[in-house]
Amino acid sequence: MAIKKLQYFVNGTFKDSKSTKIVNVYDPSTGSIIAEMPCCTEDEVNEAVAAAKNAFKSWSTTAPSKRAAIMFKVKELLDTHLDELTMMVAKENGKCWEEAKGDVLKAIEPTELACGIPSLLASEGEALFDASRGYDTIRYREPLGVFAGIAPFNFPAMIPMGWMTPMCIACGNTIVLKVSSNTPMTSLRIAELYKEAGVPDGVVNIVPCTRNEAEMLLSHPDIKGITFVGTTTVGLHIYSEAAKTGKRVQALCEAKNHALILEDAPIDRTAASIINASYGCAGERCMALPVIVVQDSIADKLVAAIVDQAKNMKIGPAYDKNSKLGPVIDDKHRQRIIAWIEKGISEGAKLVLDGRNIIVDGYENGFYLGPTILDHVTSDMTVGQREIFGPVLCIKRCKDFEDGLNMMNANPFANGSAIFTQNGHYAREFARRTDGGMVGINVGIPVPIGMFPFNGHKQSFFGDLHCLGRDGVRFYTESKVVTSRWFDEEAKKEKEVSTWDGTI
Question: What is d(CA 46, CA 221) in angstroms, rounded to the nearest whole number?
Fold first, then answer.
């Protein structure tokens, strides 16, 4: 199969990059190279920013109802091309078919939210007649300008074209997306659909590039804000550097989500939830469940049930609809995960299920790892504290609710957390006292729908306003308050004006 030469997308046009830096795009299921993505040059990134800045002039003054109509068309096209985009995600990322489809659906969901932008903007405004002796005051929200989105490899549809783009442009801004060079194809195809839907040239621009070129965006005078998803180290750097130049930032970062399993939880049903949450998307998601904290009294039974179910998972290529666990993104990442497994063993964890050295017949060169379970992980082991980003489940054991909750809250990350119990008191206490920003009660992956924010805490998030929901509207707009007064005939005759007549 011929290797496709990819282009970048600026001002409504696909262009060949002049860069000599090329990143191979793999099909993780086979290990073969399917495309080559040039990393855009500094000039090409500047070109994208200039195009976005120019497009902002007219797009920002386009009526919200007109922008919403275009977003409705975007949504329609995404629905029409769902299977095509699903295959594209499966091919370049390695998610199993239903997971890849979910990735695209999670790009459609925020697009639907953006279709309601006139109502969302109106609901964020306020007006008061006679705010003070004849003065009327109104607050409304207006777009800021050009935003930069910096996206990772693991959700090539949902993150750049769901979390970042729809609300940004629906609010009247324009965007320059630095998508992952490992998984650029889905975003580039969706950008093409945006153009077909009537999104004006320059409103959406896509420039895969290296960190060197991306660094420019943090200080570029024409960039008003940065939205980022990736590692905590990079997220903190982006937050710190971009804030220095007055940019607003939302940085969604690493996680080490924990679930507390109490002794009244139904064993088999809970095990099934853990399997889904831990091994879905091969563990390559910040809302994966890589750690469970289980009460001692049921630990052995639960571990046995998890091992039994995990052993029966069908490992295979992403586009085989019978596969339940697909490959990881590339061999480098696979080796990194294997190193973490070996680190856990050296730290004293008990390896009760080994997913190394998995070979899939007919796909021997694919980047596969089987489900892996490390039991008796303790708080002093780094394997249970740091993000692995792979199909590895760590099991910690606790005496009771308080012991388990304390163990969980000691972790520096706090994207999500969950509890499995039939006890309403403990469920309520957990929801109130857990550090996790997104909480599941008998729900392993507590990601809310798009009308709510993706709400990470602690070192899982840097910024003030999260993505999606009303936070998303506020992040992509600036509040403006206007006070006015109109004079009747008597007021026109006034010859003295006081600053202290009620306006402040």
Answer: 11
- Which segments of 144-262 are extended strands (E)? 146-150, 174-178, 204-206, 223-229, 248-252, 258-261
Distance of CA 29 to the CA centre of its chain: 23
Torsion (CA) 357, 389, 363, 358 in degrees, nearest 10 = 20
213 is a domain residue: yes
Rounded Cα gap, residues 136 and 150, in angstroms: 41
Residue 32: count other Cβ atoms within 10 Å of its Cβ: 13
- Per-residue pLDDT tens for 195-243? 999 999 999 999 999 988 999 999 999 999 999 999 999 999 999 999 9
Angle between helices 97-114 and 64-80 (to 10 degrees): 160
Q: What is the reported pLDDT for 142?
A: 96
Asked if residues 416 and 435 have their Cβ atoms less than 8 Å apart, the reply is no
Identify the three-state secondary structure at position 5: strand
**What whole-number distance in Å separates Cα of residue 489 and Cα of residue 492?**
5
DSSP assigned state of 387? -
Annotated catalytic residue 398: no
Phi and psi of 434, rounded to 5°? -70, 150
Question: In the structure, what pLDDT confidence band is assigned to residue 501 with cuts at 50, 70 and 90?
Answer: low
What count of Cα atoms within 13 Å lies in the side-chain half-sphere of residue 154? Answer: 18
Residue 284 in any domain: the answer is yes
Tokens of 121: 């903007």
The catalytic residue among 40, 168, 171, 286 is 286
| 304 and 213 in a common domain | no
Strand partners, 10: 13
> How far apart are alpha carbons 111 and 134 in whole angstroms?
41
Element (H, E) at 418: strand 416-420
Closest Cα to residue 160, out of 197, 198, 208? Answer: 208
Phi, psi of 418 (to 5 degrees): -145, 160
Show the tokens assigned to 34. 């399917």
**Residues pairing with 140 in the sheet:** 480
Beta partners for residue 418, in sequence order: 259, 440
- On whether residue 490 sits in a domain, the answer given is no
pLDDT at 488 over 90: no
- Give the separation between CA 487 and CA 494, rounded to whole angstroms: 10
Model's pTM, two decimal places?
Answer: 0.95
Q: Which domain holds residue 271?
A: 258-441
Give me the torsion for CA of 197, 198, 203, 206, rounded to 10°.
Answer: 40
Q: Which candidate, 313, 321, 288, places its Cα nearest to that of 447?
A: 288
Clarify whether residues 307 and 431 are in a common domain.
Answer: yes
Residue with tokens 């920002």: 60
The whole-angstrom distance between residue 339's C-alpha and the CA centroid of its chain comes to: 26
Q: Which helix (H) or strand (E) holds 309?
A: helix 296-311
| Lookup: tokens for 405 | 């909750």
Do residues 156 and 262 share a domain?
Answer: no
Kindly give the pairing relationship between strand 457-458 and strand 174-178. Answer: unpaired
Per cent of the chain over pLDDT 90 is 91
Q: Is 25 helix (H, G, I), strand (E, B) or coil?
A: strand
